[in-house]
Amino acid sequence: MFRCRWCDFRCLTCSGPQPFQCKSCDKTKKYPNLQYHTCVSTCSPGFYLSQNLSQCLSCHEACLNCTSSNETSCLSCKLGFVYLPDSHRCEKYTGKPYYIDSNTGETRTCHSSCTQCKGPNPNDCIACNSMTEVLLDDGHCVNECPVGFYVGVNKTNDIEINICLSCSIGCRRCINSNQCTECDGSKGYNLKNENCIPTCPERYSEKNFSCIIMFVC
Questions:
Q1: 37, 11 contact by CB (below 8 A)
Q2: SS3 at position 49
Q3: What distance in Å separates the CA atoms of residue 212 and residue 85, rounded to the nearest whole number?
Q4: What contacts 24+ positions apart, CB below 8 Å, involve 27-30?
Q5: Other C-beta atoms within 10 Å of 5: how many?
Q6: Which of 4, 15, 54, 196 has its C-alpha lying 20 to 30 A from 33's C-alpha?
Q7: Domains of the chain: which residue ranges?
Q8: pTM for the complete prediction?
Q9: For residue range 76-91, what is the model confidence (pLDDT) as tens digits?
Q10: CA quadruple 182, 183, 185, 189: dihedral sign
Q11: What is the CA radius of gyration of the chain?
């Protein structure tokens, strides 16, 4: 026996109850545009609104903003590309890494330690040499992550960036946030099943990696 089920509140019609199973959107509501079977309020970077104002379609692979999928309809470019205003195209940039000065609109060279950046200083990096370096939270490129961090991957505008992510509390060295290989013994943590367990003082017990006071009746 078949029963009707509600679509997600974003959808007008759908193929299932999940927000990514929309077939059309309600134009009078907050999420009027269909993007990859999801109803959204505005198209994401790399997409444009179709002429019938119903779907968000993909720009050309080099465009960050555009008016159509054609390579000559770019309005701005993804990282690693330079905008050619005469032809409205985005061309792969092969010169030194650069950023756009927000005050003057001029192209300026990044610091030599960055492969992509948001400013001229060594702590303005947003991407590093992916073969040998990783990016710290403070924008510096380093050869390896400091104690208490591990190498993770962040994907921005279709570019994968190696970044340093924090290990769990009490962990000095880890493979990822759930797999610790060395704990901070100076702070009373011990390794157990790839987790750092605190050594609790008298009248405390360990629960969920924290010390909880024991109540005695």
A1: no
A2: strand
A3: 63
A4: 27/53, 27/54
A5: 8
A6: 4
A7: 98-139+151-166, 168-217
A8: 0.49
A9: 888 778 888 889 999 8
A10: negative
A11: 25
